[in-house]
Amino acid sequence: MVTDVREQRALDQDNSTVELTLKVNGIKVDENRMVKFGRITKATDNLGNALEEKESSFGYDYKDRNEVSFKVSAPPRKATALSTVEGTIKYFSPTLENKGKVEINKPLDKYNTNFLKGVVSDVKLILIDEEGLKKKKAENDAAFDKELEKFRKENAINEKVGGFMTGLKDFFESMFSFGSSGPSMGFYLDDPKKKIVSISVYDEKNEKVNNGYFSSGTQMTVNLNTAPKNTWKVVVMLENEKSMKEINFSLNNVFLP
User: Fold this and answer.
1) What's residue 152's pLDDT?
2) What integer is the mean pLDDT of 10-35?
3) Lower Cβ count inside 10 Å, N or C end of the chain?
């Protein structure tokens, strides 16, 4: 059901958009079952013009309320309505059973290993032992290079990161120089299809202790309220065939403002 229609016009018609907000009925939406816009399959105005899907400036994130928004290219000013808008909504309901929710207990025992090994084949999330690698580098470059080679082999990291002595080494040295303004967990992230929805960290009382993150390329830093402990757990939410399904929607005669 359409709850809001907003038109934004620019001097360049290609930059003009119409944003629609929909209320999603018929499915349960809460903190464990979320929705977001999927894609447009067809959109036309009442003059017969085809309209294109437009990207959001901030992307489309999952929401724990039954509402989604998306943009299409604005029709000519003579148009009075969108005659047809068809597309999909993503419905995300992760559980331990469908492997949309992955819990990693005693995470500090798993430094430099892929948290998602055996769960999903095309995503790597590796918690970096930053302090340990810094010590190796302080010893000598040969010890550091040996540790990186071990890291590369154990995690099946190949030439797509630029080769062992260039891309991977640059990755760690960048992490060391960037640092963090407070307690954090640093990860090597390889997720080309953007399957990871969220990464959360919980303490012994099952209370969330992360408070934001920084991500750039294959580097991700999850900020924490206090220094990480091995009694905590990391929870990763993943899109897969069982945890996410696309629901079709169809709108007709949406009048323009």
Assistant:
1) 80
2) 91
3) C
DSSP 8-state secondary structure symbol assigned to residue 155 = T
Mean pLDDT of the residues in the chain = 89
Question: Which amino acid appears at position 5 of this protein?
Answer: V
Residues 224 and 150 in one domain: yes
Q: Distance between CA atoms of 161 and 183, rounded to whole angstroms?
A: 27
- Report yes or no: 24 and 66 within 8 Å, Cβ to Cβ: yes
**Same domain for 231 and 129:** yes
Q: Are residues 140 and 226 in the same domain?
A: yes
Query: How many domains does the chain contain in total?
Result: 2
What's 183's DSSP letter? S
Average pLDDT over residues 77-95: 97
Query: Which run of H or of E encompasses 200?
Result: strand 196-202
pLDDT in tens, 166-203: 566 777 777 666 555 678 898 999 999 999 999 999 99
What is the 8-class DSSP label of residue 168? Answer: I
Residues 255 and 83: their CA atoms lie apart, in Å, by 8
Radius of gyration of the chain (CA): 23
63 forms beta bridges with: 35
Its domain, for residue 222, covers: 101-238
Residues 26 and 126 in one domain: no
Show the tokens assigned to 109: 């025992």
Reported confidence tier of residue 215, pLDDT bands at 50, 70, 90: confident
Same-domain status, 217 and 114: yes
DSSP-derived secondary structure letter, 74: P
pTM for the whole structure? 0.83
- Whole-number Å distance between alpha carbons of 58 and 199: 19
